[in-house]
Write a structure and sequence with these properties.
The complex is a heterodimer of chains A (111) and B (142). Chain A has four helices and six strands; from the N terminus they run ββαββαβαβα. Chain A is of the alpha/beta class and 111 residues long. Chain A has a single domain, classed as Transcription Regulator spoIIAA (2-Layer Sandwich), CATH 3.30.750.24. In chain A, strands 1, 2, 3, 4, 5 and 6 form a six-stranded mixed beta sheet that branches. In chain A, strand 1 and strand 2 form a beta hairpin. Chain B is α+β, with helices and mostly antiparallel strands and 142 residues long. Chain B has a single domain, classed as Histidine kinase-like ATPase, C-terminal domain (Heat Shock Protein 90). Chain B contains three helices and six strands. A six-stranded antiparallel beta sheet of chain B has the order 1-2-3-4-6-5, covered by helices on one side. The longest helix of chain B is centred in the middle third of the chain and has 23 residues. Chain B starts with a strand and ends with a strand. The mean pLDDT of chain B is 95. Classes of the chains: A alpha/beta (111), B alpha+beta (142). Chains A and B meet through strand 4, helix 2 and helix 3 of A and helix 1, helix 2 and helix 3 of B.
């Protein structure tokens, strides 16, 4: 399990989530994104292409980050959800809260 | 801190310290010891792992207050076509009926309160003990 942060040439921060996003590691992700926000980044993509599962604490931290980024006039997009994760977002209705694209590349192109 | 899973032919048991950082390792330990063919790999990969992480996270955070001196017990029944996971803490329990619907518009942007809702959608049956400090999750082969 680890998180990777890369900034593309237009300044969008792409966060990769490898393994799982759960109660035990959500604060690490939150802090990394908040640090980037504090340093001036405003556009974020969280890429779940290498993510196995997300629990409700993981979902909660995404909701929290989305609010904090919006408060700074920024934007958060989610990408790379597999079929099970997509279903999780739909049943919790969080798919209505987030801009979700199939791939990180599509998310970057949409900014 | 090392987790020690006790495994017999039809059951497993694991004591997990009340530390949220242990949830991921505990989930992996249980999930990787479910006998092949009991559930589909996809249900083990997603449904079982997510539901167990939810149940353990709730027990550690709310049941035992993240006190590392306390323990949460995970007991797993292994049937031919089902897996039943019991997660029990030594806390005071809670009333599962008091949890609001997280999909209501007013609750959608709340950070917490989705755990039970998610569990109910991922497993075939959810039951609580009388005190409310134990949850049983049943996943059946489909």
């Amino acid at each position: 399990m680890r998180f990777t942060l890369k900034k593309d040439k237009s300044g969008v921060v792409v966060v990769g989530v490898e393994g799982q996003l759960i109660v035990g590691n959500r604060q690490e992700l939150k802090q990394k994104v908040l640090d980037a926000l504090e340093e001036g980044s405003r556009k974020f993509v969280i890429d779940f292409a290498k993510t196995g599962y997300i629990d409700s604490s993981g979902l909660g931290v995404l909701v929290s980050l989305s609010k904090k980024i919006r408060e700074q006039s920024g934007e958060l997009r989610l990408a790379g959800l597999n079929a099970d994760l997509q279903t999780l977002f739909e049943l919790t209705k969080l798919d209505t809260l987030f801009a979700i694209t199939r791939t990180a590349e599509e998310a970057l192109a949409a900014f | 801190m090392t987790l020690q899973l006790q495994v017999t032919r039809n059951a497993m048991q694991l004591d997990v310290p009340s530390d949220l950082g242990m949830v991921g390792d505990a989930v992996e330990l249980v999930a990787t010891h479910v006998p092949p063919g009991t559930l589909s790999p996809r249900r083990i990969s997603f449904n079982l792992r997510t539901a167990l992480a939810e149940a353990l996270g709730n027990a550690i955070r709310y049941g035992t207050g993240e006190d590392p001196a306390r323990r949460v017990t995970v007991r797993v029944e292994l049937g031919g076509d089902f897996v039943r996971i019991h997660v029990v803490d030594d806390g005071h329990g809670f009333d599962s009926r008091s949890v609001p619907d997280p999909t209501q518009p007013d609750n959608l942007e709340r950070e917490y309160g989705r755990g039970l809702f998610v569990i109910r959608h991922l497993v075939d049956d959810v039951a609580f003990n009388e005190k409310g400090n134990g949850i049983s999750l049943t996943l059946r082969a489909v």
